[in-house]
Amino acid sequence: MSTAAVKLPPMMTVADFLDWPGDGTGTRYELVDGVLRAQDPASDTHGTIHAKLTTRITNHLETKRPGCRLVVAPGIQPRVRANWNYRIPEMAVTCSPNLAGVHMTPDPVLLIEILSPTNAADTYENVRAYATLPSVQQILVVQSTRVGAELLTRGADGAWPANADMIEAGGVLRLASIGLDLPLAEVYVGTHLAQP
After folding, report:
1. Rounded alpha-carbon distances, angstroms, from residue 174 to 8, 12, 177, 184, 196
2. Is residue 131 classed as helix, strand or coil in its secondary structure?
3. 3-class SS of residue 5
4. First to last CA, the chain
5. Residue 179 binned pLDDT confidence (cut-offs 50, 70, 90)
6. Closest CA to 160 of 127, 182, 184
7. DSSP per residue, 51-107
8. Cα separations in angstroms, 193 against 66, 113, 123, 184
9. 3-class secondary-structure state, position 129
10. What's the Cα-to-Cα distance from 76 to each of 59, 88, 93, 103, rounded to whole Å?
11. CB under 8 A, 24+ apart: contacts of 148-152
């Protein structure tokens, strides 16, 4: 069944969204200002980048930050219009404990998105929403069609910079929020974008 043939609810709250059984197609949705937004299936390159980031960050947290954990496809509720928004980035790092029955990832310090050509506008809209959370220290957007990333780091005064740091091939992702310096090249190992 295609999603075009599925009748989606016109508006819903986060509570409605969490109770919604889905559309029966297996499509993953997030809630944006009360409206369901389908998330595009990931490409092979996207999935490989996701796996590399998951492995590198998880290994780091287990050895250097055992009180922190990586969450894949976390539920994130922005501060703005909170009852109408449930965003789902690729990954989040939180140093709060996991509790039974909790949908939202508590107090994320790092949020990560992988940018695909088809989801750029949605991704950057989500980045603005993530910045409303006081616990978030960094937001990382990794490219999936070229080697590169954008890293936003909240200042000591709590303000976000006007522009992201651009990390290009040969650069290092300085994830101060979790104490990890990760060579960007390691994120692309196993993809057609990997440096020879």
Report:
1. 41, 38, 9, 10, 23
2. coil
3. helix
4. 42
5. very high
6. 127
7. HHHHHHHHHHHHHH-TT-EEEES-BB--STTGGG-BB--SEEEE-SPP-TT--BPPS
8. 32, 18, 21, 11
9. helix
10. 23, 6, 11, 9
11. 148/184, 149/173, 149/184, 149/187, 151/175, 152/127
Domain boundaries, the chain: 42-75+85-187
* Residue 79 zone, left/alpha/beta (φ > 0; ψ -120 to 50; rest): alpha
pTM assigned to the model: 0.92
Q: What is the amino acid identity at position 54?
A: T
- Write the pLDDT tens digit of every residue in 82-134: 999 999 999 999 999 999 999 999 999 999 999 988 889 999 999 999 999 99
| CB of 89 closer than 8 Å to CB of 113 | yes
Paired strand residues for 87: 76
pLDDT of the residue at 6: 66
Looking up tokens 């998330």, which residue turns up? 39
CATH number of 42-75+85-187: 3.90.1570.10
For 17-44, how does the pLDDT look when each residue is reduced to its tens digit (9 = 90+)? 999 998 888 889 999 999 999 988 889 9
